[in-house]
């Protein structure tokens, strides 16, 4: 992810266009929790580091990339770690106030804050769940659709990984976890109809 973000910025600087290919990557999903979490730590840390590199001279960056491309970088790469860091705080405030009625009253009693926050919370999480379910349904993985409901937990774990990544960035900026592969134990036989739909 780190090199992808960096290479994307280098390509954008020289006005090289990148296109998506309608293909399927048959890669092994991470099957061990800590291995998966460390992988996310590495990715998020990479986004943080890439953002720091490309925001050292913001005026020059705007000149090199233009407002649209540099703005897209800040939105999709730069804001990703920030969103994950604040996500855990907002969840903590929400749960604390909901169950213990303790927290800053302004966030929960002022209608100008409460209603936009509630709509964003419900709409955002609903969209993420529906996208996960729809993706599995479209590809024919109907046995896995229930996992789409776990998306809020998925993002919560990403938030935990973001704090881990931040600590590592400050204490061990040159250290990167290596993801262990070959853990599946057996190759899952993909139905022929799914292979055909993926290649069409």
UniProtKB/TrEMBL annotation:
InterPro entries: Nucleotide-diphossugar_trans
Keywords from the named record: Membrane, Transmembrane, Transmembrane helix
Membrane spanning residue stretches: 70-95, 115-137, 144-166
Designated name of the protein: Uncharacterized protein
Organism listed in the record: Kyrpidia spormannii
Upper taxonomic lineage: Bacteria, Bacillati, Bacillota, Bacilli, Bacillales
